[in-house]
Specification:
92 residues, 82% helix
Length: 92
């Protein structure tokens, strides 16, 4: 059960932390997928598998871009809240 005494800004900070962890794993996935792609492209030489790996790499890169954008937006909101001494999350 969630603690009702936790301030919204603290919830945002926790969310940002969790998203940054996801971003870290996303980068690791991109690196590993790149290794797989090279193996398929250069050693296995099977276009169908290479294309599938490329599609996965593209999807993971897209996820990476979106999560970074979300983290940046949330961090800007937290920074603004701290500068203005806000307790509640401001309306968009």
């Amino acid at each position: 059960m969630a603690d009702k005494n936790v301030k919204p800004i603290d919830k945002l900070k926790s969310l940002i932390s969790q998203l940054r962890e996801m971003e870290h794993y996303s980068r690791s996935n991109i690196e590993k997928l790149s290794e797989f792609w090279l193996l398929l492209e250069e050693e296995v030489k099977h276009d169908e598998f290479t294309n599938e790996a490329d599609a996965l790499l593209t999807a993971q890169d897209n996820f990476e871009q979106h999560i970074v954008k979300l983290i940046d937006s949330l961090q800007m909101t937290v920074n603004r809240m701290e500068q203005e001494g806000l307790v509640e999350i401001p309306a968009a």
